[in-house]
Amino acid sequence: MASTSRDRAKAERYESLLRESARLFAERGFAGVSLEELGAAVGVSGPAVYRHVSGKQALLGALLVRVSEDLVAGGIGVAEATPEGIDRMRALIRFHVDFALGNADVIRVQDREIPHLSDDDHAEVRRLQRTYIGLWMQTLALLRPGSEAELRLRVQAGFGLINSTPHSTTAAARSDAATAGVLAAMAEAALLAPPDRARRRSSE
C-alpha cells in the first residue's frame, strides 16, 4: 500500500511537472525557464526534478511527444467513429479546435519549441505529426481531390488557422462555445475552398 501511495504521488508530481512546464515554456520560452523554476512550480527543488526526467530538454520532449500522441489517438478515434465524407471532416475539425482551445499552453509550446528537442524526440514528434496530417489528408481527399502537395498545404493551413487562436485569445474567449463554432466554420471554409479560378483558367 505504501509503495502504491508513493507511486501515485510520483505520477501526480510528474503530471504537475508537465502541466507547469507547458505553462512556463508558453509564457517565457524554453530558454527562459530554468530547472529550478520548474521545480519550484511544483514545490520541489531543481535537482529533485531529476527524479522524474533527465533534464529540461527531456521534459520538453515528454510534453511534445505526448501532445502528438494525443492528437493521433484522438484523430484516429474520431475517424473510426464517423462515416467518411463531410461528417468526418467536420468531426476532425471540431476535435482539433477543442484540443487547441483546451490546451492553449501546449499548442504555443508545440508551435515554437520543437527546435529545442533532442534528435530522438524531434524524430518521434515529426513521425506522429505526419501520421496525423495523413489522416486529415485522406479525409479531405474524398471531398476536395488534389495532389498530395495541395492536400498537405490545405491541411497545414487549416492547422495554422486553428492553432493561431490560442496565441491571440483570452482564456474566457477560448472557453466560449461561440469561439469554437466560429473557428470550426473558418477552418472548414479554408480546407474546402475551391482552387484558384485564375490558375484553373490558365491550365485549360
Can you describe what's shown?
This protein is mostly helical. Helices cover 77% and strands 0% of the residues. It is built from ten helices and no strands. α3 packs across α5 (104-113) and α4 runs parallel beside α7. The N and C termini lie far apart (74 Å). The model has no long low-confidence stretch (mean pLDDT 87).
Features:
single chain; 204 residues; mainly alpha; 10 helices; 0% strand; elongated
Low-pLDDT stretches are none
What composes the largest sheet?
Answer: none
Discrete helix count? 10
Q: What is the average per-residue confidence, as pLDDT, rounded to a whole number?
A: 87
Instruction: Please compute the radius of gyration using only Cα atoms.
Output: 20 Å
Task: Give a summary of the structure in a few sentences.
The chain has helices spanning 2-28, 35-41, 56-81, 86-102, 104-113, 119-141, 148-168, 171-174, 177-192, 197-203.
